[in-house]
Write a structure and sequence with these properties.
Number of helices: 15
Radius of gyration: 21 Å
Strand content: under 5%
Number of domains: 1
Oligomer: single chain
Distance between the termini: 47 Å
Shape: globular
């Protein structure tokens, strides 16, 4: 007998991870837009993501739609708690999408305006996603399986710190992506941006991790700190979990070493390892909770017959999405230059 609730929790978790990593690098390219030297460089930066950026956002639809369909109770609690940052994220994505299309057609002043809107939409989206993540980690006030908190519970110093970390993380992905996809001066610029972003990510990741342990005692206890209100560390709990931050540190080291050497592909692999480490850290902190800290995924799940029916449809659609995504990345592999466009 299939554990449909666990399968759907896994599917949504994977969809969100794919969204964060794939759309993360093209958001990162937008965040780095203001640092480009010329409009020609910005054209190349945009061309590196032009074939894939809209497909990357498919995973957000799958993650959000899957949450609504498979875990309606979680959706009904989380959405009222995070309405404003979710609306900010959607506004940023819309602004970015419009700017993407109009910038190619605009001239002179219009192109400058849409360039600013593309960068602004990317930054707004990243900040909003950071506020959503920070609000989620903080926990949601729940009474009788309904949201019972305030409109601005998600806006705290802690969530702003998380938002800064997300912006830096996306800039790291974007810089590493540009190192992989560009040549000459732009490759050198991307190398500097990647190293600066890696330093910022390291500092902010450490700050968020420490703040999380101090601000959220349930997570601290899950990681073996302060069990029962004491200041002791339970090494039997902490030691196996240390593999997760070790992966993140290894990823940052890979970025730093290989970017300094001018490597084209390894910095991106390192940046992906950093994001995977952060995601695994969240999973270790929350599972099986889906609405921190009151509702687990089994409580929030739809009836099994509904989950089974949706799984049949998903088992058909998901391989098609994966195949199309892989094909697009394969067709548009290789470097981009101002003169020749793509070359393998």
């Amino acid at each position: 007998m299939l554990d449909l609730q666990l399968i759907w929790a896994g599917l949504i978790a994977v969809a969100v991870l794919l969204y964060v990593t794939l759309d993360g690098f093209d958001l990162g390219v937008g965040i780095l837009f203001p640092f480009a030297r010329s409009k020609e460089e910005r054209d190349v930066m945009m061309n590196t993501i032009a074939p894939v950026w809209d497909g990357n956002e498919t995973w957000l639809v799958l993650g959000g739609g899957g949450l609504l369909a498979a875990f309606p109770l979680a959706y009904s609690v989380l959405m009222p708690a995070l309405y404003l940052p979710v609306l900010l994220m959607l506004a940023g994505l819309i602004l970015r999408g419009v700017a993407f299309e109009f910038r190619f057609r605009a001239r002179n002043r219009g192109r400058k305006f849409w360039t600013q809107m593309f960068a602004g939409g990317s930054i707004l989206t990243a900040v909003a996603q950071g506020l959503i993540l920070g609000g989620f980690i903080q926990g949601v006030t729940v009474e009788n399986q309904r949201f019972a908190g305030g409109t601005f519970d998600w806006l705290t110093p802690y969530t702003l710190l998380v938002a800064a970390g997300v912006v830096a993380g996306y800039a790291l992905l974007g810089g590493a992506w540009l190192m992989m996809k560009t040549t000459d001066n732009l490759h050198g610029d991307a190398r500097r941006w990647t190293l600066a972003a890696a330093a910022a990510v390291g500092a902010l990741l450490a700050a968020v991790s420490v703040a999380t342990l101090f601000v959220h005692p349930r997570i601290a206890e899950r990681w073996g700190f302060g069990a029962g209100g004491s200041l002791t560390v339970d090494w039997s709990v902490l030691t196996p979990l240390l593999l997760i931050p070790a992966l993140g540190l290894a990823g940052l080291a890979l970025v730093a070493v290989m970017a300094r050497r001018g490597s084209h592909r390894w910095p991106f692999a390192g940046a992906l390892a950093v994001f995977l480490s952060g995601y695994m850290g969240l999973a270790a902190s929350f599972m099986p909770t889906i609405v921190p800290y009151d509702i687990d995924f089994r409580q929030a799940a739809a009836p099994d017959n509904a989950l089974g029916l949706m799984l049949v449809g998903t088992s058909v659609i998901l391989p098609l999405i994966l195949a199309y995504t892989g094909w697009v990345y394969w067709v548009f592999r290789g470097k981009i230059s101002e003169e020749t466009g793509y070359h393998h």
